[in-house]
Write a structure and sequence with these properties.
This protein has about 250 residues and is of the alpha/beta class. The chain has two domains: about 150 residues, TPP-binding domain (Rossmann fold, 3-Layer(aba) Sandwich), CATH 3.40.50.1220; about 80 residues, SIR2/SIRT2 'Small Domain', CATH 3.30.1600. The protein is built from ten helices and nine strands. The strands form two sheets. A six-stranded parallel beta sheet has the order 3-2-1-7-8-9, sandwiched between helices. Helix 9 links the parallel strand 7 and strand 8. Helix 5 packs parallel to helix 10. The longest helix has 13 residues. The two termini are about 20 Å apart. Bound molecules: adenosine-5-diphosphoribose and zinc ion (ZN).
């Protein structure tokens, strides 16, 4: 690098969880008002074996999808602060999200800056032929009276393009997430209880590879002891100043 060139912008990786979207009106899972707290049965709706074998579970899933607040949600100040940091060029921002709501992309982060570890509710996939289609299309069929729409191509069961309990993550997506974690300078875990593997293990991997590990969460996580910095508070309030400080 000759003297005129400025050093490359640091890579900032953000592992985001459901806590980033609660201020957009989407409940999390394990927080005080989390879905799994309020209705332990709800986990069955996102467990692959139950979903595939029980038509009643599928019918409840399709009703929940239709009423999912994520489809009406807007990005909040936490999402926007991340998009601002990426646009500023002060850092190369890469988001590894456990969220399936698509709010990072809606906030303006380019698609190639977002890795959806757990997939997305905005698409539907066929469990038989793998065909992908828009969730809006399947929900229109539900609204028209089909309570468990099947694949128009092969007649198999349709599911949202999310990773359900009992399914494995897309190896390419996970591989890219590991690569980014190993090479980043700063790793922020934002709004995640860091209790679900393999996503949570990325925090430990980052620390082992010398990244500065920052945990931003309302409640304690198993990785707080490993973190260089733990920021307690409401993400919409604490994340923007934290990211703005990274721009200096
Ligand atoms: N500000 C700060 N922290 C918050 C806020 C907020 N506004 N809202 C919630 N939190 C915190 C909660 O205290 C909780 O510790 O965010 C965390 C969310 O944790 P989880 O509900 O466990 O969500 P997440 O870590 O994303 O879950 C991981 O589990 O159920 C599966 O596939 C699902 O992707 C999900 C995975
Ligand atoms: Zn099919």
């Amino acid at each position: 690098m000759n003297s005129g060139e400025s050093p490359p912008a640091p890579t900032v990786v953000v592992l985001s969880g459901a806590g980033l979207s609660t201020e957009s009106g989407i409940p999390d899972y394990r927080g005080p008002n989390g879905l799994w707290r309020r209705d332990p049965d709800a986990e069955k709706l996102v467990t692959y074996s139950f979903y595939m074998h029980d038509p009643e579970i599928r019918r409840r899933s399709w009703r929940m999808r239709r009423d999912n607040p994520a489809f009406r949600a807007r990005p909040n100040s936490g999402h926007e602060a991340l998009a601002r940091l990426e646009r500023s060029g002060a850092a190369r921002v890469r988001v590894i999200t456990q969220n399936v709501d698509g709010l990072h992309q809606l906030s303006g982060l380019p698609d190639d800056a977002v890795l959806e570890l757990h997939g997305s509710i905005r698409s539907v996939e066929c469990t038989g032929c793998g065909a992908r289609s828009a969730m809006a299309e399947a929900l229109a069929r539900v609204d028209a009276g089909e309570d468990d729409p099947d694949c128009r191509g092969c007649g198999s069961i349709l599911k949202s393009a999310t990773v359900m309990f009992g399914q494995s993550l897309d190896p390419d997506v996970l591989g890219e997430a590991v690569r980014l974690t190993q090479e980043c300078e700063v790793f922020l875990a934002v709004g995640t209880s860091l209790q679900v593997q393999p996503a949570a293990s990325l925090a430990g991997l980052a620390a082992r590879h010398g990244a500065r590990l920052i945990v931003v969460n309302a409640e304690p996580t198993p990785y707080d002891g490993l973190a260089d910095q733990v920021v307690r508070g409401s993400i919409g309030q604490v994340l923007p100043p934290l990211l703005d400080a990274l721009r200096r």
